[in-house]
């Protein structure tokens, strides 16, 4: 009997505990559902705080802990569970099966809620600034590897992308070449986005060079993208040596780096931005320039073959569709304006920038204005036509204050990123905003 008692006793205790728990699911279902709802309110408050912190960091380009997105998704899933269980709380006391299910599910959901509350307390926010050039390693939504502005550009775009994807050390310099206003920088920005979204590089660094080369400015841009505030305020060569060490370390860590030099007019000594010859392993240089011979000189110094991608003017049909899309004038609706527009586009040399500028000045205008714009353009000189179109675009600005602010922008360095705050401050100090000075 003693042996039987030793065996049966624990079994009975286990069964009793198991039965008691299921009975409590029935008898305490309403209380458990109420406790679940109460704890869910606490979790909602924490979820709101975490989401606000995440959005604030996203706006300010600060680090977001890797677990945050998953944690917020888990909270939403639990929220749905609570909603489903809460709908079963108002059931009759004799419906034992539903009461048992509600109590059991509420018990399990409370455990999940408590686990998420405890996990939130362990999330560590560094609030560190994300370097501009560092590519986020988190998975991103799939993106289409094409540029869709103009179909005639697809081949050039895909060729450039293919060269950027190649690991061939003999083709580390890629150049987008074409005349001014053809869309080289636009294609470069699209390539940069695809390279970033597809995690082709660990770091993407960019500097706008411009017609008047300022190597100190280019060095500052590279350092800014690397989020390195320790760049010495010394000579060009000392700063170059410092950047060289940075690239050397990235190469040793097997990091892939894309360096974009936009609007190159003259030969750049890559050693001045810390690049050795041959280029460090994993480094690609993307140039945009009107002069492919300049790009060839840069590639020779880099001990690399140059992959040139020609960016040409639009095809005739594309140019007319582009113009019509901006002005809203179609042949079937207004054949007279459409015919004038056809000639204007031709005089623009099918150049996207020229077409866009003059089309914006013709939108919603009478046909007399269209004829006047046409008469302003020369039949054969594209450069003169572009200058005339820029003049027309400026004169099209109606407000004197806007014209004054536009001209003031010309006092900033070429390709400068002019902040609204600085522009407003200058405009106010120079009394350009007359409408507010009453």
Structure description:
The chain is an alpha/beta fold and 438 residues long. It has three domains: 14-122, no CATH class; 151-310, P-loop containing nucleotide triphosphate hydrolases (Rossmann fold, 3-Layer(aba) Sandwich), CATH 3.40.50.300; 316-436, no CATH class. It contains 16 helices and five strands.
List the helices and strands and how they pair.
Layout: H1 2-27, H2 29-59, H3 67-86, H4 96-122, H5 154-165, E1 173-177, H6 184-197, E2 203-210, H7 215-225, H8 236-252, E3 257-264, E4 283-289, H9 292-301, E5 306-310, H10 316-327, H11 335-347, H12 352-362, H13 367-376, H14 382-395, H15 400-409, H16 420-429
Strand content: 5-15%
Separation, N- and C-terminal Cα atoms: 106 Å
| Count of discrete structural domains | 3
Q: What is the CATH fold-level name of the largest domain?
A: Rossmann fold
> So, the CATH homologous superfamily of the largest domain?
P-loop containing nucleotide triphosphate hydrolases
The structure class reads alpha/beta
Helix content: 55-70%
CATH architecture of the largest domain: 3-Layer(aba) Sandwich
- Mean pLDDT over the full residue set: 81
Summed up, what is this model?
Helices cover 57% and strands 8% of the residues.
Features:
5-stranded parallel sheet; 438 residues; Rossmann fold; alpha/beta
């Amino acid at each position: 009997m003693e042996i039987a008692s030793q065996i049966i006793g624990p079994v009975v205790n286990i069964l009793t505990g198991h039965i008691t728990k299921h009975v409590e699911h029935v008898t305490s279902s309403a209380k458990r559902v109420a406790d679940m709802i109460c704890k869910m309110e606490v979790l909602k408050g924490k979820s709101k705080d975490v989401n606000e912190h995440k959005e604030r960091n996203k706006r300010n380009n600060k680090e977001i802990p890797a677990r945050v997105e998953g944690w917020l998704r888990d909270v939403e899933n639990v929220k749905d569970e609570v909603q489903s269980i809460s709908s079963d709380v108002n059931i009759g006391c004799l419906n034992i099966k539903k009461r048992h299910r509600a109590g059991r599910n509420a018990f399990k959901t409370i455990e999940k809620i408590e686990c998420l509350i405890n996990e939130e307390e362990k999330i560590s926010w560094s609030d560190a600034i994300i370097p501009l050039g560092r590519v986020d390693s988190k998975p991103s939504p799939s993106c289409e590897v094409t540029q869709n502005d103009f179909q005639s550009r697809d081949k050039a775009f895909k060729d450039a992308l293919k060269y950027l994807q190649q690991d061939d050390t003999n083709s580390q310099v890629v150049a987008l070449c074409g005349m001014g206003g053809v869309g080289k920088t636009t294609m470069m920005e699209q390539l940069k986005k695809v390279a970033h979204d597809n995690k082709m590089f660990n770091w993407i660094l960019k500097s706008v060079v411009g017609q008047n080369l300022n190597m100190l400015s280019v060095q500052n841009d590279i350092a800014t993208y690397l989020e390195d505030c320790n760049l010495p305020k010394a000579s060009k060569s000392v700063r170059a040596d410092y950047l060289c060490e940075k690239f050397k370390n990235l190469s040793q860590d097997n990091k892939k780096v894309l360096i974009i030099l936009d609007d190159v007019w003259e030969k750049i000594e890559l050693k001045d931005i810390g690049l050795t010859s041959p280029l460090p392993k994993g480094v690609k240089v993307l140039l945009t320039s009107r002069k492919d011979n300049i790009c060839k000189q840069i590639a020779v110094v880099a001990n690399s073959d140059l992959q040139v991608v020609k960016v040409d003017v639009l095809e005739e049909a594309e140019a007319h569709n582009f113009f019509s899309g901006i002005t809203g004038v179609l042949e079937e609706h207004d054949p007279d304006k459409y015919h004038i527009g056809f000639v204007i586009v031709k005089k623009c040399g099918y150049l996207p920038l020229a077409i866009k500028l003059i089309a914006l000045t013709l939108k919603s205008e009478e046909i007399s204005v269209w004829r006047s714009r046409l008469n302003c353009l020369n039949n054969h000189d594209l450069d003169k036509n572009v200058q005339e179109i820029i003049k027309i675009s400026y004169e099209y600005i109606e407000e004197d204050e806007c014209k004054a602010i536009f001209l003031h922008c010309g006092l900033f360095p070429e390709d400068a990123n002019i902040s609204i705050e600085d522009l407003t401050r200058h405009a106010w100090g120079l009394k350009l905003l007359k409408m507010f000075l009453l």
